[in-house]
Amino acid sequence: MLQKKCFATFWANGLSDRMMRSLCALVLATAAPCVGQTPPVTRLAVPVQFHTLSNGLRVVLSPDTSVPLARVGVYYAAGPRRETPGRGGFAHLFEHLMFEGSTQLGPGEFFSLVTGAGGRFGARTLYDFTKYNVTIPSHALDLVLWAEADRMRALRISQERLDAVRATVKNEVRQQSFNRPYGRFVWIDVAEVAQTRWENAHSPYGETPDGSMADLDSATVADAENFYRDYYSPANAVLVVQGDIDSSRVLEQIERLFGTIPPRPVAPMSPVDEPRQFAEKRATRVDPNAPRPALAISYHLPPRSDPAFWTLAIIGQILIEGRDAWMHRALVDERKLTEAIYGGISARHGSMYTVNGPNFWSAFAFYDKSRSPDSVLAVMDDQIARLQAAPVDSATLARAITKARADLYAELSANRNEGIVDMLGQLTLFGDNPARINRIEDEFRSVTPERILNTARDYLRPTNRTVLLLNTPESK
Amino acid sequence: MTRTTRALAVGAAWCALAGAPPSAGAQAPPIPRPVIGAPKPFRPPATVERRYGNGMRVVLVPFRATPTTRIELVIRAGIADESSTRPGVAALVAEFLSEGERIALLVSDLGALGAAISVNTDSRETVLSVSVLPEAAPAMIALLADMARRPAFQATALERLRANAVRRIQLQRTQADWLASSRTNSLLFPGNAADRFPSEEQLQSIDAAAVTDFHARYYAPSRARLYVAGTFDPAGVERAAAAAFADWPRAASPPFRLPVTSELRATNGGGDRPVIHVIDRPGATQARVQVSFPVVDMAHPDHRVLNQINLLMGSTQTARLVANIRERHGYSYNISSRLARQPGATQWLVAADITNNVVGAAIQEILGEIARLRRDPPAAEELRSFQSFMAGILVSENATAPGILESLRWMDLYGVGTSYLGTFIQNVYTVTPANIHAMADRYFRPDRMTIVVVGDRNTLLPQLEAIARVE
User: Fold this and answer.
1) DSSP B448
2) A334: Cβ–Cβ under 8 A, 6 or more apart, which residues?
3) Are B302 and B439 within 8 A, CB to CB?
4) So what's the pLDDT on residue A15?
5) B14 neighbourhood in chain A, CB within 8 Å
6) Rounded CA gap, A413 and B70, in Å?
């Protein structure tokens, strides 16, 4: 049926056509003939070069000449888990302040510099880090490196700009959290109930369920200066440059622009590990905007270094993802209790690849008021019990692994392929190992039916979970 | 797949410089800002096109910048094809494509290929789109053909799909942005497909015959196009496409036609004092504000200039409305403008969620920026910066398989010609400040302006009445 072709074997963006051909030849010399065989399974082959500068900045380069674009990602290990009580939401507020002026850039000048060169930028605060992305025509890469180095070197924050940014951020919180249905569901609501340490339990937006934003109101310029000093140092950051680049020249530029930034010590981090949970937790929230109730079950996760973490990703594929998933079949097709089932690792905020500290594996669904939450929960529990009763068959496992691989590829392609930059940044932040990008698929392939059985028994136990019921205003 | 993501989004700032001293040591002499050279040329990826005897077209775009294969099957069957007595039927037919035991089994098997198919219906088209691992592309093409050509219209599914559609409508009606845009469309384009929102009763009344009739009439090879882009085996994909679609029998389908741009009507009674249409949402902490003007469609030459006006006004962080409303005043996090393109119903709009106590002030700033655009041509330097941005984003928008397919699809829909992308950048730089000024004057007349506010009426009324007539 399918033809075996070299291009399907590699997603080797970084290689020139000539190198592609020679690599292909190499593979073919050791494998099967190129044409007329069963299709090869696609494998990632992302080029990765990893360097650490003398000030501690970790640098990852990944050339790809397929289009004349360069992508830059700067990742600071400074997310909401670094915040202190009374300053919830500060990491996100600070993300906005990073555009308010640095050594040589005035407030907002970063924007005009990037857009004026034909680039686009974005920033995002996740649980364990804050990231800054730029995609730009490759001829203008030096300009972006210069600007990112400028704001890693020093920041300028005025009271006036802090006040304006605070007003914008509070509008963002209202819009995302309070003025839309399901704004806090799962990602904020579950953590508030299930996590025991403030660092993990508070909202990354800094708001409380009653609508208060007192923590944002009390943030000061001194807080910003301290946060920058403590967490925005080269040694607490990763720089990724991907795309149409000449690696050796770019590395020289990085040494000149970033390597000359004086080292700054990184403040120690409060412990964020969570104790083992021994009893099921239950909580109810009322969402004034929600047209229908919803139910979530969330289980504490193992650390991502534990094979069980990857096993739970596969379990998510078996139970939740796609129309062949067990919970979908049972809840949607057979019992008709809902029209879709959602969930997975770090549901509704980032993904399994963006989280390092304590988080959850969740399943959740929205349902009509005529249905009872107990009926939805019972069906979810039945499907988990199946998984805990006997090992899955090999076809089910193979299907789940393929879906997990497809999800990985989707993650890498996200945001116009900025996903690949993010993956390199995250793997470096979380374990100093960007080359692992090409071995993530192996994590999935190494999962066995026995591992699924044991992981389902160890982690998907009621005593490890929180059951969260979201009610509409009328059903309160 | 089904994951929902939530961004704690983008950073902020653009306004008067605040001269605070550096907060951390910068003892070394400053490194001068680099001077950048000329951009590299942008060449859109080459396409291969096939047309079968039944009228079906297939477009292949080998493009290794994306590691997966993007497949989009476009059927030109949309809301505009519905009869006025059957609103909602186009989307319901699209829902049916994934139904039936045979399809369910195939979709389930396709789960083994790691794919989730999304189906979308707009005013002119129903699009089945999916990204798959390259080895799965031929099998996926066969499945898409099966879905589009041989759906199982089972009566048992009808009730469930109608109920799903009703739920979606109920959810939409809790969302301020949907409420604002649907009211705006009703005011600007009455009778157009952009103004067709079925009621729950209308959805419940769609019967099996309406569904099968619509499918038989509009799901035809003459109205179908298959696009494949990204990493794939071209020969294998071509064989799969021919096997899946070349024998699709012709049908007596009405020819597909786009409407001409509707007349740009005055919606404001011709008066100079603005009118604000309010949708009451008691207790809301923010108001959704949408300010809209009808404009010409994408194929019209003026549209290129309108594109640049849109960027300059509200499509980037440095744009005038964002600099003013968000950065200078902090009135709104998400203010932006865009060209909402629909055949015969294209509009330029400004939308924002605004804190209750400053809604009036923010609307006045928005109207002030629009008036300034009509009054003064932009400075050449300002325009040049947005033109550079536009040239740059053309490359990044088309740097992925889904991105390039989106471009190819609308170029095809509007018939703008295949040279459009290749000549886009040089055309960007031919627009002058005088062109911008003339277009702003032509399209953004006060009597064509429509303002809709979704929020707590009692709280907002004093502010709104101070600046406009409130309806």
Assistant:
1) G
2) none
3) yes
4) 28
5) 107-108, 111-112
6) 11
CA atoms within 13 A on the CB side of A248: 0
Which of A104, A392, A413, A470 to probe the B interface (max B CBs under 10 A)?
Answer: A413
CATH code of the domain covering residue B340:
3.30.830.10
Task: Tell me the three state secondary structure of residue B28.
Answer: coil
Whole-model pTM: value is 0.86
Q: Do A13 and B64 touch (CB under 8 A)?
A: yes
B344 and B456 in a common domain: yes
Structure tokens at B45: 């990826």
Cβ contact A406–B112 (<8 Å): no
Q: Distance from first CA to last CA of chain B, Å, rounded?
A: 42
pLDDT at residue A32 is higher than 70: no
Is the separation of the CB atoms in A370 and A377 below 8 Å? no
Tell me the per-residue pLDDT of A184-217, one tens digit each, with 9 for 90 and over.
999 999 999 999 999 999 999 999 888 889 999 9
Which residue stretches of A31-128 are H helix? 90-97, 109-116
B21 in a structural domain? no
Q: Are residues B90 and B224 in the same domain?
A: yes
Residue B252 lies in a domain: no
What is the nearest CA distance from A196 to chain B, expressed in angstroms? 23
Q: Which residues of B touch A292 (CB under 8 A)?
A: 167, 170-171
The domain of B129 spans 48-245
- Domains of chain A, with CATH numbers? 6-44 (no CATH), 49-257 (3.30.830.10), 281-471 (3.30.830.10)
- pLDDT at residue A286 tops 80: yes
- Distance separating alpha carbons of residues B149 and B244, to the nearest angstrom: 10
Question: Between chains, do A146 and B31 touch, taking CB under 8 Å as contact?
Answer: yes
Same domain, B330 and B185: no
Helix%, strand%, coil% for chain B, nearest 5: 45, 15, 40
Nearest by Cα to B115 from B100, B127, B128: B128
Residue of A nearest to B45 (CA): A67
Same domain, B106 and B201: yes
Alpha carbons B29 and A189: distance in angstroms, whole number: 49
Side-chain half-sphere exposure of A91, counting CA atoms within 13 A: 30
Position of tokens 């419940």? B204
Quick one: B295 and B212 in the same domain?
Answer: no
Question: Residue B27 domain-assigned?
Answer: no
ipTM computed for the complex: 0.80
